[in-house]
Amino acid sequence: MSFKSPFLISMAERGYIHQITDAPGLDAAAPVTAYVGFDCTAPSLHIGNLVSIMMLRRLQAAGGKPIVLVGGGTTKVGDPSGKDEARALRTAQEIEANKAGIRRIFERFLTFGDGPTDALMLDNDAWLSGLNYIDFLRDYGRHFSVNRMLTMDSVRLRLDREQPLSFIEFNYMVLQAYDFLELHIRHGCRLQMGGSDQWGNIVNGIDLARRVIGAELFGLTTPLITTADGAKMGKTAQGALWLHEDQLPHWDYWQFWRNTDDRDVGRFLRLFTDLPMDEIARLEALQGAEINQAKVALANAATTLCRGAAAAQQAEATAAATFAGGAGDSLPRADIAAPTALADALVLTGLAASKAEARRKLAEGAVRVDGIPATDPTQLLSPGADPLKLSLGKKRHALLGAAA
């Protein structure tokens, strides 16, 4: 359908919309207060979370009020969605540390404050941890049908695979539904957004609010974001691509976007940057070697949003120096105090996850030292005044320097 509200027009043309519970109703109500929940399972969010963060950014740009709900309470339970086994339960200390790390990410994407469209950051532990279990079951549990809950993807897929589902995980969707009700009562929140795997949880929250207080709420989900080759967004052989620089250097973040498949460039420009649509249309129309201009534009715009303009500029300069034969200052680096075997150096610099992988890459002829092919894992490296540049394939590089 065609939309009238700036929010849904932007969401549709940039490719964020998979399902909406009541599209005409939301279109008429927009701009609204909306939330996305983020559990505290790690000290940083990763690129797989980025589309949800960008949805909140689009909402704020269109005059809505974003709520970032940090799941200090629900992390104690664990979301079964998309998982074949139970998430590891975190201690209270781990959850608090992860919350602190996650909060830093959102300050780069959203404007927080006391204004009508300024973002709020809330923690569902504020209301979940104080619940009386018997009262909660009597007041809210009676509105949930176990028969229906068993049909939800987060439960059904686990059971279909004959994987165990704990009772505590089964409760997760009830708690998430209660979050939506609380946020509506406390802050007038009318929209919950999330990935397509959250559809059932979102619908439960809408039904609960309707049954308990007669509220009309909305849900919107995004499609599963995959790359052109079918891989889940943000999953690589090297592990998760973290949004915070404590977990992933600026260079690696920038290089991820620079290495985007040609077929994904236009879509990722729409989803993960603020570039105008006419500029995106121009960039994605580039052909042949010129598509690299679009990839650099994607890398610079996405990195600027998450890491700042200085990080993007430094990474681009490093890339130019690296591919021109030099060695950029922001490449990953390891320093050694004594001659080190090449296989060990590849592990130290992060180009290989293990010595076994390093030996395999060497045998495949994928490794170069200062541009010279290398195949011997026992070759000793001794950096001089200038660091050695180690390369794995055409796109991954690191420096090996001498310890002071």
UniProtKB/TrEMBL annotation:
A motif ('KMSKS' region) lies at residues 232-236. L-tyrosine binds at Y35, Y172, Q176. Residues 329-382 form the Tyrosine--tRNA ligase SYY-like C-terminal domain. GO terms for biological process: tyrosyl-tRNA aminoacylation. One of its GO terms (cellular component) is cytosol. Keywords: Aminoacyl-tRNA synthetase, ATP-binding, Cytoplasm, Ligase, Nucleotide-binding, Protein biosynthesis, RNA-binding. It is found in: Cytoplasm. Gene3D superfamilies: HUPs, RNA-binding S4 domain, Tyrosyl-Transfer RNA Synthetase. Its EC number is 6.1.1.1. A motif ('HIGH' region) lies at residues 40-49. GO terms for molecular function: ATP binding; RNA binding; tyrosine-tRNA ligase activity. ATP binds at K235. It holds the Pfam family tRNA-synt_1b. It catalyses: tRNA(Tyr) + L-tyrosine + ATP = L-tyrosyl-tRNA(Tyr) + AMP + diphosphate + H(+). Belongs to the class-I aminoacyl-tRNA synthetase family. TyrS type 1 subfamily. HAMAP family: Tyr_tRNA_synth_type1. Catalyzes the attachment of tyrosine to tRNA(Tyr) in a two-step reaction: tyrosine is first activated by ATP to form Tyr-AMP and then transferred to the acceptor end of tRNA(Tyr). Homodimer. This is Tyrosine--tRNA ligase. The lineage of its organism: Bacteria, Pseudomonadati, Pseudomonadota, Alphaproteobacteria, Sphingomonadales.
